[in-house]
Design goal:
The structure is a homodimer. Chain A is an alpha+beta fold. Chain A contains 14 helices and 25 strands. In chain A, the strands form six sheets. An eleven-stranded mixed sheet of chain A has the order 3-7-8-14-11-10-9-24-25-23-22, sandwiched between helices. Chain A has a five-stranded mixed sheet with strand order 17-16-19-20-21, sandwiched between helices. A three-stranded antiparallel sheet of chain A has the order 4-6-5. In chain A, α9 links the parallel β16 and β17. The radius of gyration of chain A is 25 Å and the shape is globular. The relative contact order of chain A is 0.11. The N terminus of chain A is likely disordered. Chains A and B meet through β2, α2, β3, β4 and β5 of A and β2, α2, β3, β4 and β5 of B. β5 of chain A pairs antiparallel with β5 of chain B.
């Protein structure tokens, strides 16, 4: 809300302290604020609007693939958690409990949902009778709670916002196809609209969702080289169907358990966006998702302002009419201050117009991604803006891909190689990045990497750039090539 | 989900038992289901989609008037409720409390929000420093809890969905203007898109929001003659500003408390929609808000189906291209069964096409609102559908206005008149409706009407159809003409 004119100077450079840079950036750009409730943040309008655009892009894709939204109760009876053993073990340590309501102690404690497989499983058991009721393709936009010890705004908060899809199918094949379809939708959305490149793949058993048969995820590399799990899709097999007795009468007149899936992305995507594109000047938003795509700023001496506005106002109207999300900044601050402010807020394109520009029938366009300034004729300004927005979107994605490739290490073969690599990078104050390592399939080997290096198995990629021959820990033949990294 | 072919027959007629009719209708039309948590319902896809359309219509109007969305923590520290005396008294009896989280007892209990004036007041006190920070115009879409003793789906549930706008202003005048602006937006939306006529006005002190200086509401008459409060807008004065220390440095260099407002509508609007338009055949949805506007059903003998589909498919494509929300029903059930099913689900327009229609190059359009069947040429089908949808929207609103006027009683002068009126209507098994009565301004008189008749003061209308001269209870000069009714 309030305008601190010293915003930009106060952002800690990424190279000095990336965490500090992140916290500075999100507060100075007015995306969030801390709240009086431990681990809960306020999503301020500039932050929430990014979420609204993420919601719109995903919701459209969900509906195009036949899903419908619904809403299920947020409070879940304690007994429901007992019905799927791994699920209760996974979530129990993080649950907040309602024990009293309207002045009375409740007979059974109610958990605030950490995810809704149990409640939805219960309802599906009432709704599904016959193969004709299948598939059930439902999504929910909701708030969820996981009472975290260490929190980080957007990435890990006690309350967060997300969507959770929950589907039920007659066959394993169909449920598996759904699981992968939703992973593809996540990847396509995140890469296309957020310009954040992701690796698609499968989680190792140690990293699986509690109660899932198989968990798939998309993983993105942040600018500090860490991995951020940006979306997950779970094939749940018949685990929840058995726990909640979700059965259907099949065409062959047999009573069978359904196969279920669940899949979700959350407000942590806002964190992914910031840490993929941001730089020492602050936020950088890809045009497709940016609430403001073009900020228009009149420049030159105030006494010439009237003359400038004669061209400025129609240009604003033309850009708006052409569908660009454009805003003007006519405040009294200096152009230089405004340039900094809007760069910090991540607006992809700045349009400057001054008296000399008007004389030359041109304006200046400045790109947030490259810093480049381009003079363009006023007649072609609208079309050039549209071209540039597309080009910025493309360039931001390509830059992120290049960064990821540069810090993805394919040449490490053993745990010892990885340790040396980490030590060397840390000594040189360089980004450590990810390592592709062979894995024999044994949980113990994966665990040892974590214990030694804090690197965790992020994902077994569907398309590994190289196939590793031996396990980095035990030296036995590798079953998989796995991306390991420090994770958020 | 599952297809019970006996749906329609099972709906209790409105005249037999309106409550039963309501519960039958919402379950048979698959809008909701009960959940295992007391007073909490599941919003099933067909019910939730109505809410999504309500959200879209309102959200657009909020943004057009300069409001932005944000999201605040759901859990509110107990101490926050103590800061506004009336507020805590009003909501304390209904709160669910989180007392444990992650295996530990919390030091301070956290309430699940019943509304967010306190949390948002606290944040505003951090954000607002100067007159330059004002106005703050923020809205939140969220779930809220009020642990109700007696619940009714959509109308009164322990958890419900709503929006709550919270604004802060430098002057009383501006805050009052905002309060009334939002009431107007609610009324315009509800009348235009939901085709539900409303009375705008002010609440009496006994019916005010806990903590408000003035509460305004829109009230709608349901088909059983009861009133449903469908939206409220509160002028909060400086009550919350003082409770939460929200001060700003004004242009005159004085530190002043802000003036705040709050305003909300909830998923009870779904109930308003159903009970305004529904009839013994089930739901009836106004075209503007209906998820499906036109249901297309092929008729005639199956062996002629192929011939019919040659015209059916292009007509579907044309309607879709013209922007109509159209769906086809090609299932194997009989046309008669399908007609009933889609009438019960409230689809405004049915399009039938059979072999004879194809021969005559026409189709049949059947209106849900009037039951009228109209033959129209295939060439003009698209434009006629569009005209009819507009006409249905208009007609549904007018029918609802006529119903309300018919059951709005202006000729009752005393409490005794009202008692006789109620007794007579009940004896004749007729709708009791509303009564406009004079009120001296004394809470005791209002309370006596409630005690004697269960009628409550719904609203002091901005535009009373007649001005009452004396208080219906004490006979003193009337300060106001007040709509009294049984309320949901």
């Amino acid at each position: 809300m309030s305008g601190n004119k010293e915003f930009v100077k106060e952002i800690t450079p990424q190279a000095v302290d990336f965490s500090r840079w992140y916290l500075d950036t999100i507060q100075k750009a007015d995306l969030m604020d801390y709240s009086p409730v431990r681990g809960c943040i306020v999503f301020k309008p500039d932050g929430y609007e990014i979420w609204e655009r993420i919601q719109a892009g995903l919701d459209r894709r969900f509906k195009e693939t036949g899903h419908r939204n619904a809403y299920f109760p947020m409070l879940i009876p304690e007994s429901f958690f007992q019905r799927e053993k791994e699920h209760v073990e996974g979530f129990n340590p993080e649950l907040p409990w309602v024990t009293e309501a309207a002045g009375e102690k409740l007979e059974e404690r109610l958990a605030i949902r950490p995810t809704s497989e149990t409640m939805i499983g219960h309802m599906y058991s009432q709704w599904i009778q016959s193969y004709r009721d299948l598939p059930v393709l439902i999504n929910q936009w909701a708030n969820v709670f996981r009472w975290e010890k260490r929190t980080l705004p957007f990435l890990r908060t006690s309350e967060f916002l997300w969507q959770e899809g929950h589907t039920a199918h007659a066959t394993e094949e169909e449920a598996r196809a759904e699981t992968l379809q939703m992973l593809d939708i996540y990847a396509e959305f995140v890469e296309t609209e957020m310009a954040v490149p992701v690796i698609k793949g499968q989680k190792t058993p140690l990293e699986r969702f509690p109660g899932a048969v198989d968990t798939y995820s998309i993983e993105a590399m942040m600018k500090d080289g860490r991995a951020l799990q940006s979306g997950t899709s779970h094939y749940l097999g018949q685990n929840f169907a058995k726990g909640f007795d979700i059965k259907f009468l099949d065409k062959d007149n047999q009573l069978k358990y359904v196969y279920t899936t669940s899949w979700g992305v959350s407000t942590r995507l806002i964190g992914a966006l910031i840490m993929t594109h941001g730089d020492d000047r602050g936020l950088a938003l890809p045009p497709t998702l940016a609430p403001i795509q073009v900020i228009m700023i009149p420049v030159g001496p105030p006494k010439m302002r009237e003359q400038v506005m004669e061209k400025f106002d129609p240009l604003f109207a033309d850009l708006k009419a052409a569908g660009a999300r454009v805003k003007t900044d006519l405040r009294e601050e200096t152009p230089g201050w405004k340039f900094n402010e809007w760069e910090m807020r991540g607006v992809p394109l700045r349009l400057e117009l001054g008296p000399r520009d008007v004389q030359n029938n041109q304006c200046v366009l400045a790109r947030r991604d490259t810093g480049e300034k381009i003079s363009v004729g006023l007649d072609e300004a609208v079309s050039r803006v549209q071209e540039l927005l597309k080009d910025i979107q493309k360039n931001m994605f390509e830059k992120a891909v290049a960064f990821r490739n540069q810090h993805s290490h394919l040449d490490l073969e053993t745990l010892s190689d990885l340790e040396k690599h980490i030590a060397a990078k840390q000594a040189a104050d360089e980004v450590v990045g990810w390592a592709l390592l062979g894995w024999c399939g044994d949980n113990a080997c994966e665990a040892q990497i974590k214990e030694t290096t804090k690197f965790t198995a992020r994902v077994i990629p569907f398309e590994a750039p190289v196939q590793k021959k031996v396990c980095a820990v035990c030296g036995k033949p590798a079953q998989h090539s796995v991306w390991y990294a420090r994770a958020y």
